[in-house]
Design goal:
Length: 569
């Protein structure tokens, strides 16, 4: 106490020594830029730290194999063989002697489930809601996949997946967001343009390639249970699978729940007494309280057509818009109308997608081209939607045939199983992908989140030098998973609470986060003319931004100034 007080005293004395006279204006004028530079430097340092912690960009170069003779003994059993399951299997192949993926839907184990022309698949997934709906891939995910699969770009070409500069051509109510960013010498990063079916099929083809990953095996069956180790209840020893041939038990060194929205793992853990009892430490929760949801009341309408080159060559696009990748993206300004998102894209193979997403309003979702045209004509615009967009919709009639698919969906509520707050999980238990968290799909982050989960798993496995998992493995994994993914949940919730129709989390109101939302909408308006603001929005949409990019001191100053000027005049 004493030293503390005296140092304060010294500080005051020094200060008074220097300021016997009031500071001169010149001193103040010098101090402002100095303080501002300190602020800027601190901002950049913080950004570096946060980018590393939350995005994992710096972990990407480390996604290489551990020494094959140093692998963890036994088998990693992955429950669920869709996006999260396949990425988890790929990461586990580097660290475990053996990997078994158990997938319930039988046909995906056949050649059809990994065909080169995945966009041409004749079967659809009955358990994957998104399978025939619009799919977008963030640049961060594409970059990450390149670290996992060194031959990615060649393989994309083989599967007719378009790898292009990521340019969503966002038009906010008809006003184009600035892009590219000439004053930042910013080179647009690449991404993949492909369908959800194409993506899963492609990933399965890569991961089940026996030459590259000889120790990964795909088994058809439904995981019905996991069993604690009879000698040590703090870990699991077995995964129980119902197969055509009857029930089979798989010994497991690691169990990964990648069952998606089924979230089957929660039931298995509860059944075997992994719930917490007694008084819990602060911030910890019983198993039954881990899951929370709010309903963003989102509707999706995706029409997928099969087109040919002759048709593509005839569509009347302006000279600066290529007939591939993102062709037109319209975001309706304002939330009262349901924040409509309308897009025309040309992803993999011969597919062409017309899409509408909206939060609940009185407007009904278009189910065919005629309705789509009327719907788009009714959107609120600042500058009118260009005529060529309607011509393209008209021309889609020419290619509408029995290969066209129309998916109209009511998207399920957004759900989070907060495993990082559990206290009593088995030490060799992890969960990734939608089994932990779902997000508003309009932000196209679901598969990025599955990837970040796999990256978190890799980071935690990489730190283990022995050939068994430590007792705190699961806890460490969910901490790392939290760091990599929690912000995605916070952001999706922040944005969804803007919609008056959203049903918030129990105990919360839609006004939660309103000042931050005000700030972001100002940023969006600024982005129409301001390259810095546009860059931040671009990077956020691509999954490349740090959580403080939007709060660069310059941007904060511009936004507050604009608001002040608007208030005064
Ligand atoms: C309408 C919509 C649009 C979306 N758009 C995008 C987008 O544009 N971009 C994006 O990145 N993400 C998007 N997403 C999110 C994306 O679909 C998911 O994040 C992604 O599919 C998650 O993959 P997953 O492997 O975790 O779960 P899922 O894909 O749901 O897979 C779960 C798997 O587990 C299997 N399974 C379940 N239970 C068992 C069991 N007991 N035993 C064995 N197997 C089991 C299932 O058969 C399935 O194969 C969208 C989602 C929706 C609903
Ligand atoms: C977006 O808005 C601009 C300006 O209103 C317009 O010229 C353009 O055609 C629109 N669409 C695209 C894809 O750029
Ligand atoms: C539908 O039209 C497309 C484009 O013209 C064509 O490639 C496809 O084979 C057609 N499908 C059927 C079933 O006719
Ligand atoms: C395609 O044509 C059929 C038959 O005319 C029609 O019923 C269907 O609604 C059309 N599909 C779309 C997406 O417009
Ligand atoms: C986890 O356990 C290891 C030893 O097994 C120990 O070194 C480490 O500090 C522990 N970490 C935490 C977060 O408890």
């Amino acid at each position: 106490m004493g030293t503390h007080r005296s140092s304060t005293f010294v500080y005051i004395r020094r200060f008074s020594y220097h300021s016997r006279r009031p500071p001169m204006l010149s001193q103040i004028l010098l101090a402002v830029p100095a303080a501002y530079s300190v602020l800027l430097v601190s901002w950049h340092l913080l950004r570096r730290h946060l980018l590393a912690k939350h995005s994992g960009v710096r972990d990407l170069p480390h996604l290489q194999s551990r020494r094959p003779d140093k692998k963890i003994s036994g088998t990693a059993v992955i429950c669920g063989g869709s996006i999260a399951g396949l990425l988890t299997a790929r990461v586990c192949h580097d660290h475990f002697e053996r990997v078994v993926i158990v997938e319930a839907e039988a046909w995906v184990a056949s050649e059809e489930g990994r065909k080169i022309d995945g966009w041409n698949q004749k079967m659809a997934r009955s358990r994957v809601v998104q399978y025939t709906s619009l799919h977008a891939c963030q640049s961060f995910l594409y970059t990450g996949l390149k670290s996992l699969f060194p031959n990615l770009e060649d393989e994309c070409r083989r599967s007719d997946i378009r790898v292009l500069e990521s340019n969503p051509r966002f038009n906010s109510s008809g006003v184009l967001f600035r892009i590219p960013f000439s004053s930042y010498k910013f080179k647009l990063p690449k991404t993949m343009y492909l369908s959800r079916s194409g993506f899963e099929t492609f990933l399965r083809r890569l991961v089940l390639d026996k030459d590259s990953y000889p120790n990964i095996e795909l088994v058809t069956g439904t995981v019905t249970d996991v069993l604690p180790d009879p000698a040590d209840h703090s870990r699991l020893s077995t995964v129980v699978v119902r197969m055509d041939s009857g029930e089979q038990k798989f010994p497991a060194s690691l169990v990964a729940d990648c069952t998606g929205p089924a979230r089957a793992g929660l039931k298995w853990l509860d059944r075997h007494g992994y719930d917490a009892s007694g008084t819990l430490p602060a911030g910890k929760l019983p198993l039954s309280a881990l899951k929370i949801s709010y309903d963003q009341k989102l509707r999706y309408s995706s029409m997928m057509f099969r087109v040919n080159q002759a048709w593509l060559d005839r569509i009347p696009l302006p000279a600066d818009i290529p007939n591939t990748g993102a062709i037109y993206t319209f975001l309706e300004d304002g939330v009262k109308q349901g924040r409509v998102f309308f897009a025309l894209t040309r992803p993999d193979g011969n597919t062409f997608v017309a899409f509408v997403g909206q939060h609940e309003t009185s407007r009904s979702m278009p189910t065919n081209l005629a309705e789509l045209k009327v719907y788009v004509e009714g959107l609120n615009t600042v500058q009118p939607i260009p005529g060529w967009v309607f011509k393209v919709i008209d021309m889609l009639e020419e290619v509408n045939n029995s290969s066209t698919s129309v998916a109209i969906l009511k998207v399920a509520p957004t759900t989070y199983v907060r495993y990082h707050q559990a206290t009593n999980l088995p030490s060799n238990w992890v969960a990734l992908g939608d089994s932990v968290m779902t997000l508003n799909p309009l932000f196209a982050e679901g598969c990025t989140k599955a990837f970040k989960g796999a990256l978190a798993l890799h980071n935690v496995l990489r730190a283990i030098s022995v050939n068994t998992l430590p007792p705190n493995f699961s806890t460490k994994f969910f901490e790392e998973h939290f760091d990599k993914t929690d912000l995605m949940w916070q952001n999706t919730r922040l944005m969804d609470y803007a919609l008056p129709t959203t049903v918030p989390l129990p105990g919360e109101s839609l006004s939660s986060g309103s000042s931050l939302r005000w700030y972001i909408s100002q940023l969006q308006h600024l982005a129409i003319d301001d390259e810095h603001a546009a860059l931040v929005l671009y990077n956020s949409a691509a999954g490349l931004a740090s959580p403080i990019d939007a709060f660069h001191p310059n941007l904060v100053a511009k936004i507050l100034w604009t608001a002040l000027v608007a208030k005064v005049f």
